[in-house]
Amino acid sequence: MSEREVLELLRENARYSAEDIARMTDLEESEVEAAIEELEAAGVIRGYRAVVDWDALEEETVRAEVELNVELDRETGYDDIAQRLVRFPEVTALRLVSGDYDFDMEIEGDSIREVSQFISEKVAPVPEITQTVTHYVMTSYKEQGIELGDGEEDDRLSFSP
């Protein structure tokens, strides 16, 4: 049995039942259930979440991508900084990245003011953080591999002779 097959199907739709996955993989339902339990116990599967199209709601949700540059010293490493930042509930994702900055952080809040205050009062004062650059998300077209929107878009490329 391929654990990867089970993982890919759960990633495609976390609401698939063990029975559904067994049917799609030609495995026994009990094998699928055991595999999922093992993957959860090992920490490979960390949780199940809905992909939300925030633009489809009436209420405002503000999301931002924040670039962080840091300066390390002998006592502080990337993991130390990351452990401080991931504890904030406003932080929905944090990644160490290569390129022009060190961390890519995703933040959610109820307003631009709330997100701005969080960055200026909680993130920027961290001694090792030397620079923040905030990009507010205006529209999302795809999240976690799922296209968003009303699905009415014409996906054909225009053609002119």
UniProtKB/TrEMBL annotation:
Protein name: DNA-binding transcriptional regulator, Lrp family
Annotated GO MF terms: sequence-specific DNA binding
Pfam families linked: AsnC_trans_reg (PF01037), HTH_24 (PF13412)
Gene Ontology terms: biological process: response to amino acid
Coiled-coil blocks: none
Gene3D superfamilies xref list: 3.30.70.920, Winged helix-like DNA-binding domain superfamily/Winged helix DNA-binding domain (1.10.10.10)
Domain called HTH asnC-type: residue spans: 1-79
Any one GO cellular component localisation term in the record: cytosol
Entry-linked InterPro entries: AsnC-type_HTH_dom, Dimeric_a/b-barrel, Tscrpt_reg_AsnC-like, Tscrpt_reg_AsnC/Lrp_C, WH-like_DNA-bd_sf, WH_DNA-bd_sf
SUPFAM superfamilies associated with the record: Dimeric alpha+beta barrel (SSF54909), Winged helix' DNA-binding domain (SSF46785)
Alphabetically ordered keywords of this record: DNA-binding, Transcription, Transcription regulation
